[in-house]
Design goal:
This protein has about 525 residues and is of the alpha+beta class. About 25% of the residues lie in helices and about 25% in strands. It folds into 4 domains: about 90 residues, OB fold (Dihydrolipoamide Acetyltransferase, E2P) (Beta Barrel); about 100 residues, OB fold (Dihydrolipoamide Acetyltransferase, E2P) (Beta Barrel); about 180 residues, no CATH class; about 120 residues, 2-Layer Sandwich (Transcription Regulator spoIIAA). It comes from Pseudomonas rhizosphaerae.
């Protein structure tokens, strides 16, 4: 990626100039005959489908709305870039000529910005955009290569407009950029997180959370449906395998079972596939189940979960696809990276049979697991103090008699900044230790919703518990001394242990350590 996106001069009023040019008549050269499409003198509506920057002009692909409802695509070129979606009028003139004019679409039409308006975008503004086209300009002997790109802005008041830029490095098509407006009206590229693009993660997280559904709803439906005598044997076997992989609540008292449940939660499926170490887990089991109950079984969905998801989107019954889309559109807005994820249950739609309902619940369960994965990625990065924070967020469904209890887990590790570590073995400064944080959330019928937050730092464990029911909070409060003794017997130094009635505070700044005494002060 370039460190500097240059060749952007100041513009006293880019907004007005660009808007005026967007509504004026544009001369576009049609590069193919219109005789077979339009009658002489006929004028039709057209729309810019794609735009690509060339050496001397811009290559356009236009979609024509023909008389009688037909549609045709033609190629054209223009000296000025036209944004995708621009409405045009194409007229067939005598001698094979064509006249192309833009249509007015009001103030909502996208603008082409070739310069920066420092009044609308002051120095220091952080711009985020998506590369829609990129191509190398003709190279002059002895001069470095220059690439011309079109970037659709995603933030600020200019969101939706297109910025034409030149860069010394090629920009990958579809990539997301973050750049800061400099004093000389150039753009200074701001490197994104090493493993991810935070903007893309936030966008995906919002989409996944709108489609997610509770795991216990799916598992209850699986348990009820497996008793159906009309169920095909392969499908019944798939339901049995899914339930057999779930640990029992009593088994979760064993640390080895806990470790196995974390690995099998589905949070590491993609990482294992990338490392060539695929292993059965909850997410792959759900994909396999969807393949079994959807029309047209998929070949080996576990080995290629991304491909499986794309194919499943095509084979899902239309009624189920519509229900999934509608459920996502009408769902409530979810706060990004919230913990725990709220419970969501999809009711059976009218005319929907058991397998279609199960397919919809399985798709929502996969979206829930992916919401946890994306939430962990969103919270991974540098803290304001310079420490490196890594977050894993996942969900483990547990069996309890005839019920299912989803256990939501968030683990955070904070590594101190490099400059706080001793430079060598002779350095007398004490090494800064890692800080571990653990969040748990679950709901037991007898106790109600519970949340646990714990932190291990400097060899000391601090923990706080929240119970929504007053009687549960009182019960836990009376058992804290016994819990402290059991933790100390395990070799832990317990610094603080409290229980509260209500729910745990939410938000990035409500850290537990703000309530605890700093023993190093």
């Amino acid at each position: 990626m370039p460190d500097l996106i240059s060749n952007l001069a100041a513009l006293p009023s880019a907004s007005g100039a660009a808007r005026a040019s967007a509504s004026s008549i544009e001369t576009v050269k049609i590069t193919q005959p219109l005789d077979s499409l339009l009658a002489l003198g006929e004028t039709v509506d057209a729309e810019v489908v794609s735009v690509k920057a060339g050496a001397q002009d811009f290559q356009l692909l236009l979609r024509l709305s023909l008389a009688g409802g037909g549609v045709a695509t033609i190629t054209a070129s223009s000296l000025k870039p036209l944004p995708q979606g621009t409405a045009l009028l194409v007229s067939h003139l005598a001698g094979g000529a064509a006249l192309v004019a833009t249509q007015e679409r009001g103030n909502g039409a996208p603008l082409i910005l070739t310069r920066i308006d420092t009044q609308a975008l002051p120095v220091g503004t952080l711009l985020q955009g998506k590369v829609s086209s990129s191509q190398m300009l003709p190279q002059i002997a002895g001069q470095p290569a220059v690439y011309k790109a079109m970037v659709t802005l995603l933030n600020t008041a200019q969101a939706g407009n297109i910025l034409a830029i030149e860069s010394p490095q090629p920009l990958r098509l579809g990539s997301l950029l973050s750049a800061q407006v400099m004093s000389d009206q150039s753009l200074n590229f701001v490197p994104l997180s090493g493993r991810m693009d935070q903007l893309a993660v936030a966008q995906q997280l919002g989409a996944q959370q709108s489609r997610q559904g509770s795991l216990d709803s799916l598992l209850s439906a699986v348990q009820n449906l497996r008793q159906n005598p009309d169920l095909a044997p392969p499908t019944r076997a798939g339901l049995e395998r899914l339930l057999a992989t779930l640990p029992d609540v009593q088994q979760m008292a064993d640390p080895k079972t806990v470790a196995q449940a974390v690995v099998a939660s589905g949070a590491f499926l993609e990482a294992n596939l990338l490392n060539g170490q695929p292993a059965p887990d909850l997410k792959s089991a759900l994909l396999r189940l969807m393949a079994q109950i959807a029309p047209g079984a998929l070949p080996n969905p576990t080995a290629h979960p991304g491909v499986a998801a794309n194919v499943l989107a095509q084979v899902l019954p239309g009624r189920v696809r519509n229900a999934l889309n509608a459920w996502g559109q009408v769902s409530e807005k979810t706060v990004p990276a919230s913990f725990p994820l709220p419970a969501r249950t999809a009711q059976k739609s009218e005319g929907e049979d058991d397998l279609e309902h199960l397919l919809r619940l399985a798709g929502a369960a996969v979206a829930r697991l992916q919401s946890h994965q994306l939430a962990g990625l969103e919270q991974t990065g540098r803290t304001p103090e310079g420490a490196t924070q890594t977050t894993w967020q996942l969900e483990i469904p547990m069996r309890h008699l005839h019920d299912f209890i989803p256990l939501q887990v968030k683990v955070q590790r904070e590594d101190p900044p490099p400059d706080q570590q001793p430079a060598d073995r002779n350095d007398a400064r004490p090494a800064q230790e890692k800080i571990w944080r653990l969040d748990l959330a679950f709901d037991l019928d007898a106790l109600g919703p519970l949340q646990v937050q714990a932190q291990l730092a400097h060899g000391s464990l601090s923990s706080q518990l929240w119970a929504q029911r007053p009687e549960t909070a009182l019960l836990i409060e009376n058992q804290l001394d016994d819990l402290r003794q059991r933790l100390q017997a395990s070799g832990l130094n317990v610094a603080d242990l409290q229980c509260h009635q209500g729910t745990a505070p939410q938000g990035a700044r409500t850290r537990l350590e703000q309530r605890w005494v700093d023993e190093t002060a």
